[in-house]
């Protein structure tokens, strides 16, 4: 039986287990990336584990989310990250170099390599045939130290592309079409592997737009074959040696198949406030727009901004609308500037920003109250923009540019100016700042770790207790995101390296009183509906509840990365059915009837909870032996430390 491309890459890296759908395997990690919101914890954990040198081929540390350095705490984090990268052997991309996925793609992504990133959009690399998987910082820390990365073998879905995109339809619309058809939880534990004749009609860049936003489907990752178009891209990147041809076997067997006729795709837009709330742009055209933002790791590349510049060339942004272009990398900024496009954007009334994530997480360009913001980004969860009752739409750069011109949501096909779909031309070669901005390990400038006063120790949890009880501290609906648990806005993110302080913000957006109540209760439970913890990879969304004494999350289902973060920090991810969810009220006293240690260690798949001393229900614990060991030890950090100590004693 032929193999899928996913199977081939997994098999090439297999160090533990067998490749059977649903079974856990360990894979060797070639490359890692982290950024300024996740990297500080990852390096503190690397230090706490007593590791002394990065073992992977390439480890990257970026500073992209908080480039405005609004507070000394952030500047301290950046300085610490530079010192950690230099001390342990990672490359360091200075603040302003760009968003990690774009910068890594320009400089290091390579077909056939495994990339583990402390960021949920790590699958971007899949557009170039690399297997990129997002995870929590602790998994990145151990991977940097040479440990395998563990995952359940995902189902592989064949996304068969046919035909070619028509004018004004873009790669962004392809992934929006998948989100329109399916949902933000459809892709959990699945890999989307793109095949079919339509693949070769998409450029390497367009492929990375699609794989980037496969994350919004909940997917483990997405991957394209590496072919002639990939080869040409690597030549332009001046890294031809990194190219290898990769494809699934012609008779590969997939778990599922989706067919997308590219020719039928039209400009689409995701409406507030969930990425899968997608409609044709024409269905919402005419809505007045206050803000248009072009950028992000999805659509901030040179190839994304070029069409915007061409569409705005010699024209003007509508007076009622603010337009901001934030390139995803300084290389993109430099190329736009050298080729004259920045001047055209500026002349049209665009505010050209530095390369940053910035507004994507509400760090800058927070929308005004009761306003509409149209963005080329990937997430529009309510409040993520920094404005609680926001109205954020997601679309392609072309739709954003048309909207900026008219001041209302506009399908570019309806513009009443004489304009053709601009498309983009690849530059002959990519030029730019990366070389001067990236500090390679042999260029390290610091002498050891440099920690500012806000950088605290990594908190450790005690081993699992036999009796677990406490109140249902908070009852939440479906699709709670990690942005609800720990927002990434500026006032919160300055404490990413200081868990005691950060935990004060835990679930504040859902209930202002949560953190204080949890701390006081000294133990308790979270209750949630489906897809709990979707969105970002931030492990702080598990670490802070742990710090506040939460024992377990009782949810109808979990998002993949968040579930593994809960396990990594020793919190039980327990599944409940709908009837139990309906029956539990916030404030109810919950007790786990079983001896929790016995239940976890003996492999029990169900446990019993007793609520208010009145009724009982069965809850599920879907965890393998390795994960149960982590839970029993109080999480991956104490567990791994113990393993190292034991290895030392036996040596
Ligand atoms: C995001 O887009 O939400 C982030 C900020 O990039 C996160 C990372 C984090 O919060 O640390 C992600 O996507 O993983
Ligand atoms: Fe940055 Fe937004 Fe991409 Fe996250 S989704 S890495 S915040 S640009």
What would your notes on this structure say?
This is Aconitate hydratase. Residues 7-407 form the Aconitase/3-isopropylmalate dehydratase large subunit alpha/beta/alpha domain. It is an enzyme of class 4 (lyase). Residues 525-578 form the Aconitase A/isopropylmalate dehydratase small subunit swivel domain. GO terms for molecular function: aconitate hydratase activity; iron-sulfur cluster binding; metal ion binding. A seven-stranded mixed beta barrel has the order 21-22-23-24-27-26-25. A six-stranded mixed β-sheet has the order 7-6-3-4-5-20, sandwiched between helices. The chain has a five-stranded parallel β-sheet with strand order 17-16-15-18-19. The mean pLDDT is 96. It has three domains: 5-264, Aconitase, domain 3; 270-412, Aconitase, domain 3; 469-648, Aconitase, domain 4 (Alpha-Beta Barrel), CATH 3.20.19. Helix 6 links the parallel strand 9 (155-162) and strand 10. It has 25 helices and 27 strands. It is globular, with a radius of gyration of 24 Å. It is 31% helix and 18% strand. The longest helix has 17 residues, at 72-88. Helix 6 (171-181) packs parallel to helix 7 (204-213) and helix 11 (302-312) crosses helix 13. With 651 residues, it is α/β, with parallel strands linked by helices. Bound molecules: alpha-methylisocitric acid and iron/sulfur cluster (SF4). Iron/sulfur cluster binds next to helix 10. Residues 37-38, 65, 119-121, 134, 361, 488, 535-538 line the site of alpha-methylisocitric acid.
